[in-house]
Write a structure and sequence with these properties.
The protein is α+β, with helices and mostly antiparallel strands. It has a domain of about 70 residues: Alpha-Beta Plaits, CATH 3.30.70.20. It has six helices and eight strands; from the N terminus they run αβββαβαβαββαβα. The protein has a two-stranded antiparallel sheet. Strands 2-3 form a two-stranded antiparallel ribbon. The longest helix has 17 residues.
């Protein structure tokens, strides 16, 4: 019922003509203040912050202010609201049935991993703590810069993205290469040992 109400609210009343219901991309910022892309992974505290500010000052000094900002997010301009006709309930019921598919139609090899935006990161360490406590210990935390780094052990569980307090700081991107799980023993070894334990007594028993 809640899903039906949400669909009705998005399909009627006053809205934006080309709005898809998705939030616009989050511009790079620190504590609400926009940042320039320096091309370096620098945290926003201590001497690293001073170095970042020096790089930004140099970029502003050499940039042509009459040209568009290359770091601009390019958000769409505000559009005039339009009034949409109220749909019938019969037109809404079952609207998502066509999106339901078979599990076996999915490709299990299409996996994702976490990607941390160093410019948006506030160095709180929540992703590191969550991954180490409840995940796969796939995030390393730099003791000096306090910047997290995702290792190849990431399974794409999205725990880190769930606890991150900054929107879009952690995003899930397609994995490059095939994921090889580390279970402590070769894949299938436990099953082979169990089958061997069942077969061996049968071979030793008298005919």
């Amino acid at each position: 019922m809640k899903t039906l109400n949400l669909h009705l609210s998005h399909s009627t009343g006053t809205g934006l003509a080309d709005w898809t219901g998705q939030s616009p991309p989050t511009p790079v910022h620190q504590r609400g203040k926009s940042l320039l892309a320096t091309g370096q992974s620098l945290p926003a505290f201590g001497p690293y912050k001073q170095r970042r500010e020096a790089l930004e000052h140099e970029l502003l000094r050499t940039r042509d202010l009459l040209k568009p900002d290359p770091a601009s997010t390019g958000l769409a301009q505000r559009q005039r609201p339009v009034v949409k006709p109220v749909p019938k309930v019969s037109d809404i019921v079952g609207a998502s049935v066509g999106l339901v598919g078979n599990y076996y139609d999915l490709d299990n090899k299409q996996q994702v991993v976490a990607l941390v935006n160093d410019d948006l990161c506030i160095n709180c360490g929540k992703c590191y703590m969550t991954c180490n406590d409840s995940g796969y210990q796939a995030i390393e935390f730099d003791a000096e810069t306090h910047l997290p780094r995702v290792t190849d052990d990431c399974t794409g569980c999205t725990l880190c993205a769930s606890v991150c307090p900054i929107i879009d700081c952690i995003t899930m991107v397609p994995r490059v290469g095939e994921y090889v799980p580390k279970r402590g023993v070769p894949f299938g070894a436990a099953l082979e040992q169990k089958q061997a334990a069942v077969i061996m007594p049968a071979q030793d028993s008298p005919a």
